[in-house]
Amino acid sequence: MKILTLNGINLNMFGKRDPKQYGTVTLDEINARLSALGQELGAEIETFQTNCEGAMCERIHQAHTDGVDAVLINAGAWTHYSYGIRDALAILTCPIVEVHMSNIHAREPFRHVSVFAEIAKGQICGFGADSYLLGLRAAVSAVRAAGG
User: Fold this and answer.
1) Which of 58, 67, 81, 92 is the most exposed place for a label (fewest CB within 10 A)?
2) pLDDT tens digits, the chain, 148 residues: what are they?
């Protein structure tokens, strides 16, 4: 089982950016935790981070070509307005799980909207780095439920 984890704009700054909101864990530490849990669950985890919207769309297109089994995505601020990334994700036929470290529904009103919500299997937010691990478990479960 192959699961692609996508991280968007500014998420390379985890551990440095607003620790009150995001904690002190780095993206590398999150990726290591995902990899370890992936091994435990029998899933191969690939991670990708970019601050360039076009590069994110191209990586999603590649995921379609590669036939990944599920996608875990934290697109950062793009979640709230990037119809380009939303349309790229809509090409995928695998489960998409949206994750956020902070509770986007308890923050500024513009963060309450996810343009990905209607195409995602589900959304997990507010549990810090554990949001990623919970999202991975949900993605693996969705793939298995679909017979993968």
Assistant:
1) 67
2) 999 999 999 999 998 877 777 778 999 999 999 999 999 999 999 999 999 999 999 999 999 999 999 999 999 999 999 999 999 999 999 999 999 999 988 888 888 899 999 999 999 999 999 999 999 999 999 999 988 7
Cα–Cα distance between 77 and 81 in angstroms, integer?
7
Assess contact for 86 and 127: CB atoms under 8 A: no
pTM, full prediction: 0.94
Domains of the chain with bracketed CATH: 2-145 (3.40.50.9100)
Spell out a b/e string for 93-106, using b for 16 or more CB atoms within 10 Å of the CB, else e.
ebbbbbbbbbebee
